[in-house]
């Protein structure tokens, strides 16, 4: 069943360009910004498991720190970071000191509620365990230090005993999926089949019996994807982050077990997301109620939830499906998410973050809603350095740190270039060790050049925004590289007006401006007219410019605006004045103060 193999992050490095700048920002700013906020809020001290601590631990704080540790591991992959390693090693010592003799570790339950260990499904114990396992694997591979790994292996043995052997816990499967992915990673490292067996157990047992959530005030089993056995699910349901984590685990097992039923279920679910429930930015999860998927085409703009972690989770799912099936469409979705729904999560200075990523901000609504009780929450107009529920910042750290692993896949005969970034990668193709170098300024330019250390066939993905049927039958362009000789490909980077299905009510009759893989938006700071009065000319030309303050490309379009009027109501008029409107990349909005913004604009 396996078509592609993933390239380990050990074997690939981003060397220059767009994403290298983002990773350098991560190394110099973001990783420390997240650490400082977590230190101030007690997350690191929670690992001391002090029942009398001034700041009481929370049930999911272990996962926050674990994701940060995993991110540190990726940063140390190509350049040692002694200061960060010292912090990690201190946390590991706290875990070693406070881990129960049976192997259990969770800072909240050890410090505050030891009598309630493994009683409540939605209290994130297995979720936290999963992130600690992933951190342990990544840290061992990056540094060779195995103390955290050994501690987690002991914990996994205890989890297996309680859940799979004794079956004496208050629930069978985790409310928030994650440990399934971690156990597969642990299996890939150790080759111990019991770890894959336990991952399989948590996936296969889901949906066999109703397990209500402890904190939920409704018993909707779709919230935690427990409404049916995974093999029988065919639509994306419930909490969007939990969902894509489960679907990622299903794809993992489909690949390793050769399970065609799981594969088919994953394909149906993925198609449901992309065809019915995904924003143009690649964001998913359209409501704050349960942070969930809703019905088909329900994609409100201002009310979009579109959590940053959900965008990251969709990439996890898509990457696994790419490896499982070899189909290009999954790499296209990854690109959409990377440059839009994920990238919007972080401020341009790398210090603050969005939890939700709306497609529209109406500044006036924030004043109106301030005096209205029980109204639907409005999306924030600026990013925050930390949240009470701060899952997104450390997830951004680990995801951005591991980004290089998305660039290439390969099989026994060839390398497939799935994403475009200046990079250097090492492959074993046909028994030969080959280094492939990619150079590009993408997405500013579509020119991409390649050099290999030995003869090599590569297949370069044709981006979704180009008509791949006219360029290549299967969506990839083959290049036969001779050792040491450079070959280039030059894609057009078009600017287009995109419309949504008419059933997407918030976007009906409107257009979005897209330049290559990057979605653009109107922000009031750049425009003299009220942006909600701007109507983009359907026959517009597109003038590319540059905003020095933001460091991004801008697009100026021909547009119309209704003349100003003091009348509350007036007879309909077709009178318009011609104007120019300026757009910026969606990922760059909300970096210059609070302002109205929209992705979808009126068109004439």
Quantity of strands, as a count? 20
Task: Report the uncertain regions.
Answer: 214-219
Radius of gyration: 24 Å
Question: Quick one: overall form?
Answer: globular
Largest sheet: 6 strands, mixed, barrel
Describe this structure in words.
The protein has 604 residues and is α+β, with helices and mostly antiparallel strands. Helices cover 35% and strands 17% of the residues. A hairpin with a 2-residue loop joins β6 and β7 (432-440). It starts with a strand and ends with a strand.
Notable traits:
17% strand; 20 strands; 6-stranded mixed β-barrel; alpha+beta; 5-stranded mixed beta sheet; globular; 604 residues
Outline the secondary-structure elements.
Layout: E1 5-6, E2 12-14, H1 17-40, H2 61-75, H3 82-98, H4 107-111, H5 125-143, H6 147-166, H7 179-190, H8 193-204, H9 240-257, H10 260-277, H11 308-325, H12 329-342, E3 360-361, H13 363-369, H14 392-401, E4 408-410, E5 415-417, E6 423-429, E7 432-440, E8 447-452, E9 456-461, H15 468-471, E10 476-481, E11 487-490, E12 495-498, E13 510-515, E14 518-523, E15 534-536, E16 542-547, E17 552-561, E18 577-585, E19 597-598, E20 601-603
Parallel strand pairs: 5-9, 15-20
Antiparallel strand pairs: 1-4, 2-6, 3-19, 4-5, 6-7, 7-8, 8-11, 9-10, 12-13, 13-14, 13-20, 14-18, 14-19, 15-17, 16-17, 17-18
Helix pairs in contact: 1-2, 1-14, 2-5, 2-14, 5-6, 5-7, 7-8, 8-9, 9-10, 9-11, 10-11, 11-12
Quick recap:
This protein is α+β, with helices and mostly antiparallel strands and 604 residues long.
């Amino acid at each position: 069943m396996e078509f592609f193999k993933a390239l380990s992050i050990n074997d690939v490095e981003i060397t220059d360009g767009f994403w290298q700048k983002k990773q350098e920002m991560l190394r110099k700013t973001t990783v420390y910004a997240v650490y400082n906020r977590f230190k101030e809020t007690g997350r690191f001290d929670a690992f001391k498991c002090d029942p009398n601590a001034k700041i009481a631990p929370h049930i999911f704080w272990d996962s926050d720190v674990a994701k940060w540790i995993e991110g540190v591991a990726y940063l140390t992959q190509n350049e040692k970071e002694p200061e960060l390693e010292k912090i990690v090693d201190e946390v590991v010592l706290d875990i070693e000191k406070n881990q129960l003799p049976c192997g259990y570790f969770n800072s909240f339950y050890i410090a505050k509620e030891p009598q309630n260990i493994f009683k409540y499904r939605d209290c994130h114990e297995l979720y936290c365990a999963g992130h600690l396992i992933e951190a342990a694997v990544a840290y061992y591979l990056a540094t060779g230090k195995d103390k955290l790994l050994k501690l987690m292996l002991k914990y996994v043995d205890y989890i297996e005993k309680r859940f799979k052997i004794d079956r004496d816990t208050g629930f069978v499967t985790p409310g928030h999926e994650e440990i399934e992915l971690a156990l597969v990673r642990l299996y890939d490292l150790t080759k111990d089949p019991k770890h894959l067996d336990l991952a399989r157990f948590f996936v296969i047992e889901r949906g066999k019996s109703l397990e209500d959530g402890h904190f939920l005030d409704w018993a909707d089993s779709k919230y935690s994807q427990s409404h049916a056995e995974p093999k029988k699910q065919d639509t994306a349901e419930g909490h969007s982050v939990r969902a894509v984590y489960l679907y990622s685990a299903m794809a993992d097992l489909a690949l390793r077990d050769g399970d065609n039923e799981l594969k088919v279920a994953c394909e149906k679910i993925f198609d449901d997301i992309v065809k019915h429930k995904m924003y143009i930015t690649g964001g998913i999860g359209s409501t704050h109620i349960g942070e969930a998927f809703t019905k088909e085409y329900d994609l409100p703009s201002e009310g979009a939830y579109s959590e940053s972690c959900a965008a990251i989770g969709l990439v996890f799912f898509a990457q696994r499906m790419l490896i499982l099936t070899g189909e290009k469409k999954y790499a296209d979705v990854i690109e959409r998410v990377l440059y839009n729904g994920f990238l919007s999560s972080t401020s341009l200075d790398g210090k603050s973050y969005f939890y939700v990523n709306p497609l529209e901000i109406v500044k006036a609504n924030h004043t109106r809603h301030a005096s209205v009780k029980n109204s639907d929450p409005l999306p924030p107009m600026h990013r925050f350095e930390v949240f009470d529920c701060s899952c997104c910042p450390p997830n951004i750290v680990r995801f951005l740190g591991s980004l290089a692993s998305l660039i290439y896949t390969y099989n026994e005969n060839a390398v497939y270039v799935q994403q475009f970034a200046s990079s250097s990668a090492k492959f074993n193709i046909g028994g030969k060790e080959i280094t492939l170098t990619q150079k590009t300024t993408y997405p500013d330019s579509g020119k991409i050049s390649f050099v290999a250390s030995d003869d090599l066939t590569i297949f370069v993905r044709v981006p979704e925004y180009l008509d791949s049927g006219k360029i290549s039958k299967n969506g990839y362009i083959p290049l036969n590289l001779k050792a040491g000789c450079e070959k280039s490909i030059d894609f057009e980077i078009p600017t287009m007006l995109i419309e949504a299905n008419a059933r997407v009510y918030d976007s009906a009759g409107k257009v979005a401006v897209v330049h290559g893989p990057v979605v653009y938006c109107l922000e009031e700071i750049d425009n003299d007219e009220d942006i909600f009065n701007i109507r983009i000319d359907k026959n517009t030309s597109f003038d590319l410019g540059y905003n020095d303050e933001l460091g991004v490309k801008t697009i100026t379009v021909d547009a119309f605006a209704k003349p100003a009027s003091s009348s509350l109501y007036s007879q309909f008029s077709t009178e318009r004045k011609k104007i120019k409107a300026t757009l910026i990349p969606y990922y760059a909005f909300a970096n210059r103060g609070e302002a109205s913004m929209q992705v979808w604009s009126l068109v004439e």
